[in-house]
Amino acid sequence: MDSNSITITDHRTGKQYDIPVEDDNIRAKALKQIKVHPEDFGMMTYDPAFLNTASCRSAITFIDGDKGILRYRGYPIEELAEKCTFLEVAHLLLNGELPPQEDLSAWVTRVKRHTMLHETTKKFLEGFRYNAHPMGMLISTVAALSTVYPDAKHVHDPVIRSRHIVRLIAKMPTICAYCYRHQFGLPYVYPDNDLSYTANFMNMMWKMVEPKYVADPTLARVLDILFILHADHEQNCSTNTMRCIGSALADPYVSVAGAAAALSGPLHGGANEEVLKMLDEIGEKTAIPAYIERVKKGEVKLMGFGHRVYKNYDPRARIIKWAADRVFEVTGHNNRIEMALELERIALSDDYFIERKLYPNVDFYSGIIYQAMGFRPDIFTVLFAIPRVVGWLAQWQEMLLDPEQKIARPRQVYTGEGERHFVPIEERSPAQTVKA
Ligand code: ACO
User: Fold this and answer.
1) pLDDT tens digits for 62-80?
2) Model-level pTM?
3) Cβ within 8 Å of residue 120, ≥6 positions away
4) Nearest 5°: phi and psi at 216?
5) Is 258 touching ligand 1 by the criterion CB < 6 Å?
6) Residue 360 in contact with ligand 1 by CB distance below 6 A
7) Could you tell me which CATH number the domain at 68-267 has?
8) What is d(CA 275, CA 364) in angstroms, rounded to the nearest whole number?
9) Which of 38, 212, 257, 344 has a CA-to-CA distance to 58 between 20 and 30 Å?
10) Is 156 a known active-site residue?
11) Rounded Cα distance, 373 and 394, in Å
12) What spacing in Å lies between the alpha carbon of 233 and ligand 1's midpoint?
Protein backbone atom coordinates (compact mmCIF):
# COMPACT_ATOMS: atom_id res chain seq x y z
CA MET A 1 0.00 0.00 0.00
CA ASP A 2 1.27 3.49 -0.91
CA SER A 3 2.06 5.32 2.35
CA ASN A 4 0.97 8.54 0.67
CA SER A 5 -2.64 7.46 0.37
CA ILE A 6 -5.79 7.10 2.42
CA THR A 7 -7.99 4.04 2.58
CA ILE A 8 -11.74 4.35 2.40
CA THR A 9 -13.97 1.52 3.52
CA ASP A 10 -17.42 1.46 1.95
CA HIS A 11 -19.54 -0.28 4.59
CA ARG A 12 -22.38 -0.64 2.09
CA THR A 13 -20.29 -3.15 0.14
CA GLY A 14 -17.39 -3.96 2.48
CA LYS A 15 -14.94 -2.89 -0.25
CA GLN A 16 -11.79 -0.85 0.48
CA TYR A 17 -10.27 1.77 -1.80
CA ASP A 18 -6.76 3.26 -1.68
CA ILE A 19 -6.99 6.89 -2.69
CA PRO A 20 -3.65 8.59 -3.55
CA VAL A 21 -2.85 11.82 -1.70
CA GLU A 22 -1.37 14.63 -3.84
CA ASP A 23 -0.25 17.91 -2.24
CA ASP A 24 -2.06 16.77 0.95
CA ASN A 25 -5.35 16.46 -0.94
CA ILE A 26 -7.26 13.77 -2.76
CA ARG A 27 -8.73 14.12 -6.24
CA ALA A 28 -12.51 14.17 -6.14
CA LYS A 29 -12.47 12.03 -9.30
CA ALA A 30 -10.67 9.27 -7.40
CA LEU A 31 -13.91 8.75 -5.44
CA LYS A 32 -15.81 7.91 -8.61
CA GLN A 33 -14.62 4.30 -8.43
CA ILE A 34 -16.68 3.87 -5.22
CA LYS A 35 -19.91 2.24 -6.38
CA VAL A 36 -22.55 -0.13 -5.01
CA HIS A 37 -23.61 -1.36 -8.47
CA PRO A 38 -21.36 -1.34 -11.57
CA GLU A 39 -23.83 0.96 -13.37
CA ASP A 40 -23.80 3.60 -10.57
CA PHE A 41 -22.35 7.01 -11.43
CA GLY A 42 -19.90 6.65 -8.55
CA MET A 43 -19.26 8.64 -5.38
CA MET A 44 -19.08 12.43 -5.56
CA THR A 45 -18.45 15.02 -2.87
CA TYR A 46 -21.28 17.42 -2.07
CA ASP A 47 -19.91 20.89 -1.33
CA PRO A 48 -22.41 23.73 -1.66
CA ALA A 49 -20.61 27.09 -1.96
CA PHE A 50 -17.24 25.30 -2.37
CA LEU A 51 -16.45 25.40 1.35
CA ASN A 52 -13.85 22.65 1.03
CA THR A 53 -13.16 22.17 -2.67
CA ALA A 54 -10.05 23.24 -4.59
CA SER A 55 -11.04 23.92 -8.20
CA CYS A 56 -7.53 24.53 -9.51
CA ARG A 57 -3.83 24.50 -8.77
CA SER A 58 -2.50 28.04 -8.67
CA ALA A 59 0.91 29.66 -8.18
CA ILE A 60 -0.36 33.24 -7.92
CA THR A 61 -1.70 34.08 -4.46
CA PHE A 62 -1.20 32.33 -1.13
CA ILE A 63 -3.54 32.87 1.81
CA ASP A 64 -3.35 31.34 5.27
CA GLY A 65 -6.66 32.44 6.71
CA ASP A 66 -5.92 31.27 10.26
CA LYS A 67 -2.62 33.12 10.45
CA GLY A 68 -3.80 36.18 8.49
CA ILE A 69 -1.17 35.75 5.75
CA LEU A 70 -1.55 37.03 2.18
CA ARG A 71 1.26 36.73 -0.39
CA TYR A 72 1.40 37.46 -4.10
CA ARG A 73 3.84 35.10 -5.87
CA GLY A 74 5.46 34.47 -2.48
CA TYR A 75 5.93 38.13 -1.48
CA PRO A 76 4.09 39.27 1.70
CA ILE A 77 1.39 41.81 0.92
CA GLU A 78 2.85 44.17 3.56
CA GLU A 79 6.20 44.38 1.70
CA LEU A 80 4.56 44.88 -1.68
CA ALA A 81 2.25 47.59 -0.33
CA GLU A 82 5.16 49.44 1.23
CA LYS A 83 7.73 49.15 -1.55
CA CYS A 84 6.01 48.68 -4.92
CA THR A 85 3.79 50.54 -7.31
CA PHE A 86 0.52 49.02 -8.47
CA LEU A 87 1.77 48.42 -12.02
CA GLU A 88 4.89 46.71 -10.63
CA VAL A 89 2.63 44.37 -8.65
CA ALA A 90 0.47 43.85 -11.74
CA HIS A 91 3.59 42.70 -13.60
CA LEU A 92 4.41 40.37 -10.71
CA LEU A 93 0.96 38.81 -10.62
CA LEU A 94 0.80 38.33 -14.38
CA ASN A 95 4.36 37.19 -15.04
CA GLY A 96 5.49 35.67 -11.76
CA GLU A 97 8.45 38.00 -11.04
CA LEU A 98 9.09 41.56 -9.96
CA PRO A 99 10.49 43.27 -13.07
CA PRO A 100 13.95 44.86 -13.28
CA GLN A 101 13.81 48.63 -13.99
CA GLU A 102 14.10 48.30 -17.78
CA ASP A 103 11.23 45.78 -17.98
CA LEU A 104 9.12 47.82 -15.58
CA SER A 105 9.58 50.99 -17.66
CA ALA A 106 8.65 49.11 -20.84
CA TRP A 107 5.59 47.59 -19.11
CA VAL A 108 4.38 50.97 -17.78
CA THR A 109 4.87 52.57 -21.21
CA ARG A 110 2.94 49.73 -22.80
CA VAL A 111 0.01 50.14 -20.40
CA LYS A 112 -0.03 53.92 -20.89
CA ARG A 113 -0.22 53.48 -24.67
CA HIS A 114 -3.63 51.83 -24.27
CA THR A 115 -5.42 54.15 -21.85
CA MET A 116 -7.65 55.79 -24.48
CA LEU A 117 -11.10 54.40 -25.29
CA HIS A 118 -12.44 53.99 -28.80
CA GLU A 119 -14.68 57.03 -29.41
CA THR A 120 -17.69 54.77 -30.03
CA THR A 121 -17.38 53.58 -26.44
CA LYS A 122 -18.12 57.14 -25.29
CA LYS A 123 -21.30 57.07 -27.39
CA PHE A 124 -22.21 53.73 -25.81
CA LEU A 125 -21.88 55.34 -22.36
CA GLU A 126 -24.13 58.20 -23.47
CA GLY A 127 -27.03 55.74 -23.63
CA PHE A 128 -27.14 55.20 -19.87
CA ARG A 129 -29.55 57.17 -17.69
CA TYR A 130 -27.95 59.95 -15.66
CA ASN A 131 -28.51 57.98 -12.45
CA ALA A 132 -27.31 54.57 -13.69
CA HIS A 133 -25.20 52.75 -11.09
CA PRO A 134 -21.52 52.90 -12.10
CA MET A 135 -21.09 49.13 -11.63
CA GLY A 136 -23.88 48.46 -14.14
CA MET A 137 -22.23 50.88 -16.56
CA LEU A 138 -18.81 49.35 -16.00
CA ILE A 139 -20.00 45.76 -16.51
CA SER A 140 -21.84 46.65 -19.73
CA THR A 141 -19.05 48.83 -21.11
CA VAL A 142 -16.34 46.24 -20.52
CA ALA A 143 -18.55 43.63 -22.21
CA ALA A 144 -19.10 46.04 -25.11
CA LEU A 145 -15.33 46.25 -25.68
CA SER A 146 -15.58 42.67 -26.89
CA THR A 147 -17.26 44.09 -30.00
CA VAL A 148 -14.47 46.63 -30.48
CA TYR A 149 -11.75 43.97 -30.29
CA PRO A 150 -13.14 40.85 -31.99
CA ASP A 151 -9.68 39.26 -32.21
CA ALA A 152 -9.73 38.91 -28.41
CA LYS A 153 -11.58 35.63 -28.91
CA HIS A 154 -8.27 34.01 -29.93
CA VAL A 155 -7.54 33.25 -26.30
CA HIS A 156 -4.90 30.61 -27.05
CA ASP A 157 -2.70 33.05 -29.01
CA PRO A 158 -0.17 34.39 -26.45
CA VAL A 159 0.51 37.61 -28.39
CA ILE A 160 -3.16 38.48 -28.75
CA ARG A 161 -3.85 37.47 -25.16
CA SER A 162 -1.08 39.71 -23.87
CA ARG A 163 -2.34 42.65 -25.96
CA HIS A 164 -5.83 42.42 -24.48
CA ILE A 165 -4.56 41.94 -20.94
CA VAL A 166 -2.69 45.25 -21.32
CA ARG A 167 -5.72 46.92 -22.91
CA LEU A 168 -8.00 45.90 -20.06
CA ILE A 169 -5.61 47.06 -17.34
CA ALA A 170 -5.03 50.35 -19.19
CA LYS A 171 -8.67 51.10 -19.99
CA MET A 172 -10.31 50.22 -16.66
CA PRO A 173 -9.53 53.59 -15.00
CA THR A 174 -10.70 55.43 -18.11
CA ILE A 175 -14.01 53.53 -18.25
CA CYS A 176 -14.55 54.02 -14.52
CA ALA A 177 -13.85 57.75 -14.66
CA TYR A 178 -16.18 58.12 -17.66
CA CYS A 179 -18.95 56.23 -15.80
CA TYR A 180 -18.56 58.70 -12.94
CA ARG A 181 -18.55 61.79 -15.15
CA HIS A 182 -21.54 60.56 -17.12
CA GLN A 183 -23.59 60.63 -13.91
CA PHE A 184 -22.96 64.36 -13.56
CA GLY A 185 -23.04 65.31 -17.22
CA LEU A 186 -19.39 66.34 -17.01
CA PRO A 187 -17.23 66.24 -20.14
CA TYR A 188 -14.96 63.23 -20.33
CA VAL A 189 -11.30 63.93 -19.58
CA TYR A 190 -8.79 62.17 -21.81
CA PRO A 191 -5.94 60.28 -20.13
CA ASP A 192 -2.76 62.20 -19.35
CA ASN A 193 0.06 59.74 -19.82
CA ASP A 194 2.59 62.02 -18.07
CA LEU A 195 0.91 60.95 -14.84
CA SER A 196 1.16 57.73 -12.84
CA TYR A 197 -1.59 55.12 -13.14
CA THR A 198 -3.47 56.38 -10.09
CA ALA A 199 -2.74 60.10 -10.56
CA ASN A 200 -4.05 59.82 -14.11
CA PHE A 201 -7.20 58.12 -12.81
CA MET A 202 -7.72 60.98 -10.36
CA ASN A 203 -7.13 63.40 -13.24
CA MET A 204 -9.83 61.74 -15.36
CA MET A 205 -12.22 61.72 -12.39
CA TRP A 206 -11.81 65.25 -11.10
CA LYS A 207 -10.17 67.58 -13.61
CA MET A 208 -12.32 70.61 -14.24
CA VAL A 209 -11.06 73.71 -16.11
CA GLU A 210 -7.50 73.85 -14.80
CA PRO A 211 -4.90 73.36 -17.57
CA LYS A 212 -3.15 70.56 -15.69
CA TYR A 213 -4.68 68.53 -12.87
CA VAL A 214 -2.27 67.90 -10.02
CA ALA A 215 -3.22 65.01 -7.75
CA ASP A 216 -2.20 65.20 -4.11
CA PRO A 217 0.85 62.90 -4.01
CA THR A 218 -0.12 61.32 -0.68
CA LEU A 219 -3.62 60.53 -1.92
CA ALA A 220 -2.30 59.18 -5.22
CA ARG A 221 0.13 56.92 -3.35
CA VAL A 222 -2.56 55.72 -0.92
CA LEU A 223 -4.79 54.90 -3.90
CA ASP A 224 -1.88 52.98 -5.43
CA ILE A 225 -1.50 51.02 -2.16
CA LEU A 226 -5.24 50.30 -2.04
CA PHE A 227 -5.02 49.05 -5.62
CA ILE A 228 -2.14 46.73 -4.61
CA LEU A 229 -4.21 45.34 -1.72
CA HIS A 230 -7.16 44.63 -4.00
CA ALA A 231 -5.23 43.19 -6.96
CA ASP A 232 -5.82 39.50 -6.27
CA HIS A 233 -7.28 37.24 -3.63
CA GLU A 234 -7.08 33.71 -5.08
CA GLN A 235 -10.34 31.81 -5.70
CA ASN A 236 -12.91 34.31 -4.44
CA CYS A 237 -16.42 34.57 -5.92
CA SER A 238 -15.53 36.91 -8.82
CA THR A 239 -12.25 35.14 -9.68
CA ASN A 240 -14.06 31.83 -9.72
CA THR A 241 -16.58 33.45 -12.09
CA MET A 242 -13.73 34.69 -14.32
CA ARG A 243 -12.19 31.23 -14.48
CA CYS A 244 -15.59 29.63 -15.07
CA ILE A 245 -16.57 31.93 -17.96
CA GLY A 246 -13.03 31.81 -19.35
CA SER A 247 -13.07 28.01 -19.25
CA ALA A 248 -15.70 28.10 -22.01
CA LEU A 249 -13.07 30.08 -24.02
CA ALA A 250 -15.13 33.28 -23.91
CA ASP A 251 -13.01 36.35 -24.67
CA PRO A 252 -11.42 38.29 -21.78
CA TYR A 253 -13.77 41.30 -22.10
CA VAL A 254 -16.99 39.36 -21.53
CA SER A 255 -15.23 37.20 -18.93
CA VAL A 256 -14.15 40.31 -16.99
CA ALA A 257 -17.69 41.70 -17.31
CA GLY A 258 -19.02 38.50 -15.69
CA ALA A 259 -16.42 38.63 -12.94
CA ALA A 260 -17.29 42.29 -12.29
CA ALA A 261 -20.98 41.32 -12.04
CA ALA A 262 -20.07 38.85 -9.28
CA LEU A 263 -17.97 41.51 -7.58
CA SER A 264 -20.91 43.94 -7.54
CA GLY A 265 -22.84 41.81 -5.01
CA PRO A 266 -23.13 43.20 -1.46
CA LEU A 267 -21.57 40.06 0.04
CA HIS A 268 -18.47 40.55 -2.12
CA GLY A 269 -17.05 43.79 -3.54
CA GLY A 270 -20.30 45.66 -2.99
CA ALA A 271 -19.67 45.49 0.77
CA ASN A 272 -17.57 48.69 0.88
CA GLU A 273 -20.55 50.74 -0.31
CA GLU A 274 -22.78 48.92 2.19
CA VAL A 275 -20.41 49.81 5.06
CA LEU A 276 -20.95 53.51 4.35
CA LYS A 277 -24.73 53.04 4.17
CA MET A 278 -24.57 51.15 7.47
CA LEU A 279 -22.58 53.90 9.20
CA ASP A 280 -25.08 56.46 7.91
CA GLU A 281 -27.95 54.31 9.19
CA ILE A 282 -26.35 54.01 12.64
CA GLY A 283 -25.87 57.77 12.61
CA GLU A 284 -23.88 58.33 15.81
CA LYS A 285 -21.58 56.50 18.22
CA THR A 286 -24.23 56.22 20.94
CA ALA A 287 -26.44 54.20 18.59
CA ILE A 288 -23.77 51.52 18.00
CA PRO A 289 -24.67 49.15 20.91
CA ALA A 290 -28.30 49.01 19.73
CA TYR A 291 -27.11 48.24 16.19
CA ILE A 292 -24.85 45.45 17.47
CA GLU A 293 -27.89 43.95 19.22
CA ARG A 294 -29.76 43.95 15.89
CA VAL A 295 -26.79 42.17 14.27
CA LYS A 296 -26.80 39.53 17.02
CA LYS A 297 -30.54 38.97 16.58
CA GLY A 298 -29.85 38.29 12.90
CA GLU A 299 -31.87 41.31 11.73
CA VAL A 300 -28.89 42.87 9.90
CA LYS A 301 -25.30 41.96 9.07
CA LEU A 302 -22.32 43.94 10.22
CA MET A 303 -21.09 44.88 6.76
CA GLY A 304 -17.32 44.80 6.30
CA PHE A 305 -17.02 42.07 8.93
CA GLY A 306 -16.39 38.37 8.37
CA HIS A 307 -14.57 36.50 5.66
CA ARG A 308 -14.79 33.04 4.16
CA VAL A 309 -11.04 32.51 4.48
CA TYR A 310 -9.69 34.87 7.16
CA LYS A 311 -10.71 33.66 10.59
CA ASN A 312 -8.08 35.60 12.53
CA TYR A 313 -7.68 38.96 10.85
CA ASP A 314 -7.56 40.27 7.30
CA PRO A 315 -3.98 41.56 6.77
CA ARG A 316 -5.28 44.04 4.20
CA ALA A 317 -7.54 45.68 6.80
CA ARG A 318 -4.46 46.42 8.96
CA ILE A 319 -2.67 48.17 6.07
CA ILE A 320 -5.83 50.05 5.16
CA LYS A 321 -6.12 51.34 8.71
CA TRP A 322 -2.54 52.67 8.38
CA ALA A 323 -3.43 54.23 5.02
CA ALA A 324 -6.49 55.87 6.59
CA ASP A 325 -4.24 57.85 8.94
CA ARG A 326 -2.19 59.15 5.96
CA VAL A 327 -5.39 60.20 4.16
CA PHE A 328 -6.85 62.00 7.16
CA GLU A 329 -3.60 63.95 7.58
CA VAL A 330 -4.41 65.44 4.16
CA THR A 331 -8.19 65.63 4.20
CA GLY A 332 -8.75 66.42 7.87
CA HIS A 333 -10.76 64.58 10.51
CA ASN A 334 -13.69 62.40 9.47
CA ASN A 335 -16.24 61.27 12.04
CA ARG A 336 -17.02 58.10 10.09
CA ILE A 337 -13.60 56.69 11.00
CA GLU A 338 -14.37 57.38 14.67
CA MET A 339 -17.65 55.50 14.29
CA ALA A 340 -15.90 52.62 12.51
CA LEU A 341 -13.22 52.35 15.20
CA GLU A 342 -15.86 52.31 17.92
CA LEU A 343 -17.90 49.72 16.04
CA GLU A 344 -14.80 47.56 15.66
CA ARG A 345 -13.90 47.96 19.34
CA ILE A 346 -17.35 46.94 20.54
CA ALA A 347 -17.70 44.09 18.03
CA LEU A 348 -14.31 42.60 18.82
CA SER A 349 -15.06 42.41 22.52
CA ASP A 350 -18.45 40.76 22.01
CA ASP A 351 -18.82 36.97 22.30
CA TYR A 352 -21.04 36.78 19.19
CA PHE A 353 -18.19 38.03 17.00
CA ILE A 354 -15.39 36.29 18.95
CA GLU A 355 -17.09 32.87 18.75
CA ARG A 356 -17.72 33.23 15.02
CA LYS A 357 -14.24 34.67 14.37
CA LEU A 358 -15.67 37.76 12.71
CA TYR A 359 -13.06 40.47 12.09
CA PRO A 360 -13.03 43.59 9.90
CA ASN A 361 -12.29 42.67 6.29
CA VAL A 362 -10.74 44.77 3.52
CA ASP A 363 -14.03 46.55 2.88
CA PHE A 364 -14.59 47.82 6.42
CA TYR A 365 -12.19 50.75 6.15
CA SER A 366 -11.67 51.11 2.40
CA GLY A 367 -14.98 52.88 1.80
CA ILE A 368 -14.27 55.39 4.56
CA ILE A 369 -10.90 56.24 3.00
CA TYR A 370 -12.35 56.45 -0.48
CA GLN A 371 -15.05 58.83 0.70
CA ALA A 372 -12.52 61.03 2.50
CA MET A 373 -10.53 61.17 -0.76
CA GLY A 374 -13.58 62.48 -2.58
CA PHE A 375 -15.06 59.33 -4.15
CA ARG A 376 -18.81 58.84 -3.92
CA PRO A 377 -20.05 55.58 -2.33
CA ASP A 378 -21.61 54.25 -5.53
CA ILE A 379 -18.16 54.25 -7.18
CA PHE A 380 -16.47 52.22 -4.41
CA THR A 381 -16.99 48.82 -6.00
CA VAL A 382 -15.72 50.22 -9.28
CA LEU A 383 -12.55 51.21 -7.38
CA PHE A 384 -12.27 47.57 -6.34
CA ALA A 385 -12.76 46.33 -9.90
CA ILE A 386 -9.93 48.44 -11.40
CA PRO A 387 -7.10 46.61 -9.62
CA ARG A 388 -8.91 43.26 -9.38
CA VAL A 389 -8.87 43.09 -13.19
CA VAL A 390 -5.18 42.23 -12.82
CA GLY A 391 -5.94 39.26 -10.58
CA TRP A 392 -8.80 38.10 -12.80
CA LEU A 393 -6.55 38.21 -15.86
CA ALA A 394 -3.62 36.50 -14.13
CA GLN A 395 -5.92 33.70 -12.96
CA TRP A 396 -7.63 33.48 -16.37
CA GLN A 397 -4.29 33.14 -18.11
CA GLU A 398 -3.11 30.53 -15.61
CA MET A 399 -6.33 28.59 -16.22
CA LEU A 400 -5.85 28.70 -20.01
CA LEU A 401 -2.26 27.44 -19.70
CA ASP A 402 -3.14 24.65 -17.25
CA PRO A 403 -3.39 21.37 -19.21
CA GLU A 404 -5.64 19.90 -16.50
CA GLN A 405 -8.32 22.56 -16.89
CA LYS A 406 -11.40 22.04 -19.04
CA ILE A 407 -14.76 23.76 -19.32
CA ALA A 408 -16.01 24.21 -15.73
CA ARG A 409 -19.05 22.08 -15.16
CA PRO A 410 -19.99 21.04 -11.61
CA ARG A 411 -22.22 18.09 -10.84
CA GLN A 412 -25.41 18.22 -8.79
CA VAL A 413 -27.31 16.03 -6.39
CA TYR A 414 -30.73 15.83 -8.02
CA THR A 415 -33.56 16.19 -5.48
CA GLY A 416 -36.52 16.64 -7.82
CA GLU A 417 -39.33 14.38 -9.04
CA GLY A 418 -38.78 10.96 -10.55
CA GLU A 419 -40.08 10.40 -14.09
CA ARG A 420 -43.71 11.43 -14.60
CA HIS A 421 -45.87 12.08 -17.63
CA PHE A 422 -47.56 15.03 -19.26
CA VAL A 423 -50.95 16.10 -17.87
CA PRO A 424 -53.29 18.07 -20.21
CA ILE A 425 -53.95 21.61 -18.92
CA GLU A 426 -57.67 21.01 -18.15
CA GLU A 427 -56.75 18.06 -15.91
CA ARG A 428 -54.14 19.87 -13.78
CA SER A 429 -54.94 20.67 -10.16
CA PRO A 430 -53.66 23.84 -8.39
CA ALA A 431 -51.20 21.62 -6.49
CA GLN A 432 -49.49 20.87 -9.79
CA THR A 433 -48.81 24.53 -10.46
CA VAL A 434 -45.10 25.24 -10.54
CA LYS A 435 -43.98 27.60 -7.79
CA ALA A 436 -41.42 29.87 -9.42
N1 ACO B 1 -22.36 40.13 10.54
C2 ACO B 1 -23.02 39.30 11.42
N3 ACO B 1 -22.91 37.96 11.43
C4 ACO B 1 -22.11 37.42 10.51
C5 ACO B 1 -21.39 38.19 9.57
C6 ACO B 1 -21.55 39.60 9.61
N7 ACO B 1 -20.89 40.37 8.76
N8 ACO B 1 -20.69 37.38 8.77
C9 ACO B 1 -20.94 36.12 9.19
N10 ACO B 1 -21.79 36.16 10.25
C11 ACO B 1 -22.26 35.01 11.03
C12 ACO B 1 -23.26 34.18 10.22
O13 ACO B 1 -24.59 34.63 10.42
C14 ACO B 1 -23.02 32.80 10.81
O15 ACO B 1 -23.63 32.75 12.07
P16 ACO B 1 -24.35 31.38 12.56
O17 ACO B 1 -23.24 30.38 12.68
O18 ACO B 1 -24.99 31.73 13.87
O19 ACO B 1 -25.35 31.02 11.50
C20 ACO B 1 -21.51 32.78 11.06
O21 ACO B 1 -21.15 34.16 11.26
C22 ACO B 1 -20.69 32.20 9.92
O23 ACO B 1 -20.95 32.99 8.75
P24 ACO B 1 -21.11 32.40 7.28
O25 ACO B 1 -22.19 33.14 6.59
O26 ACO B 1 -21.22 30.90 7.34
O27 ACO B 1 -19.69 32.75 6.66
P28 ACO B 1 -19.34 32.73 5.13
O29 ACO B 1 -17.93 32.33 5.05
O30 ACO B 1 -20.31 31.94 4.35
O31 ACO B 1 -19.55 34.25 4.68
C32 ACO B 1 -19.14 36.53 4.24
C33 ACO B 1 -18.51 35.16 4.52
C34 ACO B 1 -20.09 36.44 3.03
C35 ACO B 1 -18.01 37.51 3.90
C36 ACO B 1 -19.93 37.00 5.49
O37 ACO B 1 -19.04 37.10 6.58
C38 ACO B 1 -20.63 38.32 5.26
O39 ACO B 1 -21.76 38.32 4.73
N40 ACO B 1 -20.00 39.50 5.63
C41 ACO B 1 -20.59 40.80 5.38
C42 ACO B 1 -20.39 41.22 3.94
C43 ACO B 1 -18.94 41.60 3.66
O44 ACO B 1 -18.32 42.35 4.39
N45 ACO B 1 -18.45 41.08 2.53
C46 ACO B 1 -17.09 41.39 2.06
C47 ACO B 1 -16.22 40.19 2.18
S48 ACO B 1 -14.58 40.60 1.66
C49 ACO B 1 -14.69 40.62 0.00
O50 ACO B 1 -15.47 39.94 -0.63
C51 ACO B 1 -13.82 41.48 -0.70
Assistant:
1) 999 989 999 999 999 999 9
2) 0.93
3) 148
4) -65, 125
5) no
6) no
7) 1.10.580.10
8) 6
9) 257
10) no
11) 29
12) 17
